[in-house]
Every structure is written in C-alpha cells, then in structure tokens.
Write a structure and sequence with these properties.
72 residues; 1 helix; globular; 35% strand; UCP037692; YheE family protein; alpha+beta
C-alpha cells in the first residue's frame, strides 16, 4: 500500500504535464517522474519485484487520475 503520496508539477507553468512524485511503500521512500503518457521514471533506487511494481504503478495511476486529471 502506498502511503504519504505527494506530487508537484515539474514546470512553473503548471498547465504543462509532468509531475514529480514521492511516496512510501513498506516503510521505504520512493521518488520518480510521472510523465503525461503514464510512464513512471524512477529517480530513486527501488527494490520492487515485478508483481509489486505492477501493483504500485496501478495505485499511482489511480491517484494521479483522481488528484490531477479529475480536478481540472
């Protein structure tokens, strides 16, 4: 489960897509860049197995849809 999810725009012009994201998963902090196409570029080292990474990405996509795209 993702905890303490945060995001902020990569650009001063917040209309441009691209976000820095950070969160905790199993007491470990993770950071990355969420691109407009949904791709996540990890900027911190992470130790997810394939299935866990798939689930974490799904949770991030849902959070971004709710916080960014649904609130426009």
């Amino acid at each position: 489960m993702i905890q303490h999810f945060q995001y902020k725009s990569l650009y001063k012009n917040q209309q441009l897509p691209g976000w820095y994201i950070s969160f905790y998963h199993q007491k470990e902090k993770h950071e990355g860049v969420y691109h407009p196409d949904g791709k996540i570029e990890w900027t911190s080292s992470y130790s997810f197995d394939t299935e866990t990474e798939k689930n974490v990405k799904k949770q991030i996509h849902e959070l971004m849809l709710y916080h960014v795209y649904d609130n426009r």
